[in-house]
Model the fold of this input.
Amino acid sequence: MLSNRAIYDDEHQQLRDTVRRFIAAEVAPNFAGWEETGIVAREFWTRAGQAGLLCPTVPEEYGGIGADFRMNMVVCEEMAYSGFAGPAADISVHSDVCLGYLIKHGTHEQKARWLPGMVDGSVVCAIAMTEPGTGSDLQGVRTTAVRDGDDYVINGQKTFISNGQHCDIVIAVTRTNNERGSGSMSLIVIETNREGFRRGRNLDKLGQLSADTSEIYFDDVRVPVGNLLGAEGRGMNILMSELPQERLTIGVTALAAAQRAYDITLAYAFDRKAFGKPIGEFQVNRHKLADMKTELTIGWAFADQCIARHVDDQLSASEASMAKLWLTEMQGRIVDQCLQLHGGYGFMREYDICRMYADARIHRIYGGTSEIMRELISRAL
Done:
C-alpha cells in the first residue's frame, strides 16, 4: 500500500526508491549495533543528508529542493516500513517536526544560519517541550528565559528529548515572564555548544532502542535575543499551529509500521505449519488476517486524505488528532494480533515482530496521548 497511490507521482516514486536503497546500504547493516549501543551513529545524519532525505521542504535559497510535504511523507513511510524504528523516529523529529517551526516562524537570518545544515545533516535539530513535571500539560513548563540586555539567560530541565544526544540546536519552550498562563511562553533556539548547556543520560526505553532520547539541562545558558522564534509570548500559539503536522506524521508512521507487521505476519502464516497445514489456512487466523487487511486499507485511504488536505493547508487540528488517535490505536491492535499469530516465536527479539511490538507502544503517547486526542476531538464536535 505504500506505492501506487493517487496522491503521489513519478517524482515521489523516485524518492521512494532512493530511500529504500539508503535503508539497504546504510541502515540495515548497522541497525543491530545501534540498537545495542542505544543510539544511531552521527555518520547516519551525514549519509542521510548526502542521500537527500533530510528536510525536503526547505526552499532552494536555503539549500533544499522546495518540495511540498508529500516528499516528507515518502521518507517517513519508507523509514517506518523498514522496521528500523529508531532511525525513522530521529529523522522524522528533525524533518517533520522541528523544521516546520523554523520555516514558518523563523526570520531570514535564522533560516540562512540553520537550514542549510539541517538539509546536509551537519546540523541536527531537536525540540524541547516536556519537563520532568509536565507532559501533555505544556502550560506547566517551568524553564525560564530572562532578558538581560541583548541576551536571554535560560535555566531549566527537559526530558524525553528526541535527538537530544546528537542535536546541534534545540527549539526550547520557555517562560519569558512570571505569569502562569500561555501568554508567558516563548520559543527560543539554543545552540548546544553554548556554555551551560548539558546533555543528561540517553534514556533506556521499552522500544525504539536506537532512537536518540535524552535529558537536557540549561544552566545560565546565554543566547542572543535574535534566537527568539516568532514573537515573545507567542510560543503556545506557534506550538498549536505546528502540532497538527506532528500528529499527522506520527499517525502515518504508525500506519506504515503496522503495514510492515501485517506483511511479515502474512508471509509467516502461510509458511509456519501446525497440525499438518499452514496456520494461515485455519479459518480463525484467515479471518484475523482479513480484518487486519481491511483496517489497513481504510487507514491508507484516511491517511492519504489527511496528507492531501495538509498540503492544501486545510487539515484542521481535530482532523490531525483523529488521524493520530485512530492510526496509532490501530497499529497497537495489529501488532498485538501479529505477535499472537507468531506464537512463542513472537516473544523472541530475534523475530522482527517482537521488536515492532515494543516499538509501537510509544505512538499512543508522544505527540499527545490518545486521551488528549479524544479531548481535542470532542471540543470540535
In short: Residues 127-233 form a domain with the Butyryl-CoA Dehydrogenase, subunit A; domain 2 fold (CATH 2.40.110.10). The chain is about 50% helix and 15% strand. The mean pLDDT is 96. The longest strand covers residues 151-162.
